[in-house]
Amino acid sequence: MDSSGYEYFSFRNSRAINVARGVPERSFPSHRHSFGEIIVAGKGSKNIYRINDTLYTLTEGDIILVWPMELHEIVDADRSDSIVIQYSNVFADALFDFKRIITLYHGLHIVCINSHRKLAEKLISIAQRIRKTWDDGKPNREMRCSILLMKFMLVLEEHHKELEKDIRNDGGKTISEETLFSLMSVTDYIKNNLTSDDLSQTAMAERAGISRDYFSRIFKEVTGSNYNRWLNAVRVEKAVSLLPEEGLSLTEIAMLSGFKSIPSFNRVFAQFKNAPPSVYRRMIKENTLTEDE
Q1: CA-to-CA distance for 191 and 257, rounded, in angstroms?
Q2: DSSP code string of 160-211
Q3: Phi-psi region of 209 (alpha: psi -120 to 50; beta: other; left: phi over 0)
Q4: How far is CA 223 from CA 10, 114, 146, 252, in A?
């Protein structure tokens, strides 16, 4: 399994939330994306997913949590009746409490209906309401779905004690809320200052008011990625947001995204998106990108 590949699918219209319909295809190769994903397993005799290095065999009603930038694969699943909810990382990053919940549950990927029936039924009910609200096509559906998504996350947090044994890491318990707030402030600063002369890990640790070694450790604990890879991912996502602007050259986009040279821009972009920027831009123009897996 290639852990370096990032899918090149785009989150439709930069929405805060998207609800995808079930599809007949039974598999999708290993990939990552910047948006988070919630899947409610549908009917069927087989539902096998892989998240990071763990294989999960699920039953109807199990809930799958794929956090932003996590490697995952649909190995063999009956997906025609599943519910798939996708939320933008920009939306998640805008709310400190949302980011904190993601941190607390970063090690949790499955809520099993047989082990946590009452909780799963609550979450499924919210997911069904999100899908119904999305499909009804009424005004402000994105806002109404976003409110329901926040309720989904709040229900998860309310049941943290019940889920402790299912969370594979320490749930962020070694990080105080004050330190987490400092770290999130740093990540927000980076996203808003990608052209800064010094975004080194040392400089960002100083900005957070902690040592470089501690910054490095908790950064990976919170984001699931080392600092340099995360920074490159943010730069690539910035470039993706600028590619539709026809008045900007690829060189200008590279510079605005914080890349120091065109060769490094092309190399890193292709690593994350499986296509060079020029090809990706053409796919955007031809409308050949899709957000559905």
Answers
A1: 9
A2: HHHHGGG-SS-TTTTS-HHHHHHHHHHHHHHHH-TT-S---HHHHHHHHTS-
A3: left
A4: 21, 30, 22, 29
- 204-228 tens-digit pLDDT: 999 999 999 999 988 887 776 789 9
Rounded Cα distance, 236 and 110, in Å: 29
The class that CATH gives domain 177-285 is mainly alpha
Kindly report, residue by residue over 13-67, the tens digit of the pLDDT: 457 898 987 788 888 888 777 789 999 998 887 899 999 888 999 999 999 999 8
| pTM of the predicted structure, to 2 decimals | 0.71
Q: 12-166 has which CATH code? A: 2.60.120.280
One-letter amino acid identity for 214? Answer: Y
Q: What residues contact residue 224 under an 8 Å CB cut-off, 6+ apart? A: 67, 69, 70, 106
